[in-house]
Amino acid sequence: MITPTLQHYLVVSGLLFCLGLLGVLARRNLLVVYMSLELMLNAANLALVAFSHFNNQLNGQVMVFFIITVAAAEVAVGLALIVAIYRKRQTAHVEDLSSLKF
Amino acid sequence: MNLSLFQSEIAVVLLGLGVLLADLWLPSEARNKLGYAAAAGLVAIFLYGFRGLLIDPVHVSVFPIGGSKFGMFIQDGLAVYFKQFFLLAAAIVLLMSVEYSSRFTAGISEFYSLTLFALLGMLFAASSNDFVMMFVSLELITITFVVLNSFQRNRMASLEAGVKYLIIGALASAFMVFGIALVFGSAGTTNFEEVRALQKTLAANPVFLVGLLLVTVGLGFKIAAVPFQIWAPDVYQGSPAPATAFLAVGSKAAGIVLLMRVLFGAVPMLTSHATKLLIVVAAITILYGALCAIPQRNIKRLMGYSSIANAGFLLLGVAAAPHEGLTATLYYLTGYLFTVLAAFLVIAVVLRETESEDISVLHGLGHRSPYLALALTLSMVSLAGVPPLAGFFGKFLLLRSVMAAGTLDSSYYLLVAVAVVGVVLSIYYYLGIIRAIYWGGTNPDKSVLRFGITTKVALAICIAGMLYAGVLPHFLVQTASNAVGSSLHPEPVTAQTSAAR
Known about the structure:
The complex is a heterodimer. Chain A is mainly alpha-helical. Chain A has a single domain, classed as Helix Hairpins (Orthogonal Bundle). Helix content of chain A is about 75%, strand content about 0%. Chain A contains three helices and no strands. In chain A, α1 packs antiparallel against α2 and α2 runs antiparallel to α3. The N and C termini of chain A lie far apart (about 60 Å). By secondary structure, chain B is an all-alpha fold. Chain B has a domain of about 220 residues. Helices cover about 75% and strands about 0% of the residues of chain B. A two-stranded antiparallel sheet of chain B has the order 1-2. In chain B, α17 runs antiparallel to α18. The N and C termini of chain B lie far apart (about 50 Å).
C-alpha cells in the first residue's frame, strides 16, 4: 500500500483536465459540453486542494470554495440558456447553432 | 478596515439592488425610465471619484488572506483611473439601453441592474491584487455578460451569441483556474506583490511558467486577442447593441487592466523576457482583425472585427512595455471608449427601427438625422486614425513607444510595419461606413430618426471626448502616466532579451 503523494494527485488532476478538454472539443451536445467544462473546473479544484494539503497552506482550499460558488452560478445561467435554446429550436446540438455567419 | 476604499463599489451594489427593488413597485410603463436614474447615480459616483484622481493616489491594499502582509484589493493610481473609465462607460451604456429598450420584450430593469453588476465586476477587476480576486471579478463580468448577450430571448441570434460566449468563456476560465492552481502550487501564494518578490526563483520553475501561460489564456479571451478571438464576431453580431457596446469597451478594458497587473505587477521580469511572444500576438491580432473586417456587410460584425484589430493596437503598448507604452495603451483605451460608444449609440438608434443589420440600413442617414450621421462619421474617422481626433493621437503614441523600444530590439520595427499596414487596411472599411452614410444610394425608409435628449447628450459627451482627447491630450496623457507610474513596475526590454538569445 503506497501513500499517495502530490504527484499522484496532480497526475489525476491533469488527466481530468485533459478529459474535460477532449469532451469540450469532441462532443456535440451542449449539455455534454457543459458537463465537460465542469470537469475541467473540478480538475483545478483537485489540484488546488492537493497543493494546499502538501504545502500546509489553507489558501488553496479557500480558493476552491470561490470556484465552486462561481461554477454554481455559471451552471444556473448556462442551463437556463440551454433550456431557452431548446424551447426555440427543439435541439441542443452544437451544429444547429449556425445562424451567425456573414 | 477602511470602508471608504470601497465607496464606489458599495455605491454601485446599492444602485443595482435599488433598481431591482424599484422594479417591484413601479408600473411597467415607467420601468424603462429606471435607466436614467441608474445612469444619474453612476454620473454622481463618477464625479465624486475625481477626488481620487486629483489628490495623490493612495497605495493601499486590504483584505489579506492567510497572514499575508499584502491585501487582495488594492487602491492605487491605476485602479482609480480605470474605475473612472468603467463608470463613464457604464453610464453611457445605460443611456443607450434606455434608447434601445423598445426592442426588449421584457425585463428591462434586469438589464439595467445586470449592467451595474457587470460594472461592479470591472471595478473589482481594476483593484485586483491577487489571482483569486482576479478570477472572481472576471467571472462576475463573464456570467453577467452571458445574460446580457442573450437578453433578446425571442431572437435566435441573441441566444446563440449568449451560448457561444458561455461555452468559450467557461473554457477560458477553466484554463485560467487551472493556471492559478499551478501558480499557487509553485509560488505558495496568489498575491501579485508576493509573487513579484519571488519572481527571480520562480522564473526557473516550469510549473509556474505553464500556470502563468494558462492565466494569460483567460485574459486573452477577455480582450479578444488572436488565438482566443473566435467568439468575438459572432457574439458582437448576435447581442443587443448596448450589450455589444459594453462588451467592446468595458469587458475589453477589464482584460487589459488585469493583463497589466499580472504582467507588470506580478511578473515584470518574466515579461521583459517574453516580449517576442507579445510582439507576435499583437501583430497577428492587428492583421487578423483588419483583414477579416474588409468583406463584412453586417455593421455589428464589422465592429466585432474592428474590436479585434483594436485589441491588437492595445497590445502594442503592452509589448513595448516601459512607461511610455503602458501610458499610450491607457490613453488609446480612453479615446476608444468615446469613439466606440459614439458609434454604438448611433447603431442602437438605427437598428432599433429595423430588423436588418446590413450596412445598407445606414444609407441616407445624412437626411434622416444629420446629427447621428455626423457622430458616426466622426467616430469612424477617429477609429481610422485621422488627425484631429483621439484615435490618431492614440495610435501615434503607441507607435512612438514601439519605435522607442525598437532601438533595443529590432523586431519591434517589424511590429511597427505591421501596425501601419493594419491602419491602412482599416481606413478602407471605416471609410466604407462613411460612404454608406452619404453616398450609399437611397434608403426605402426615409422616416426621420427620433431619439431622446439624453441620447443627444451622451453623443455630445462622446464627440467632445474624442475632440478633447485628440486636440488637448496633455491632461489625459499626464493622468495616464501618473497612474502607470504609481502602480506598475515595468522593466526595460533591453539587456535581458539579448542575453536570452
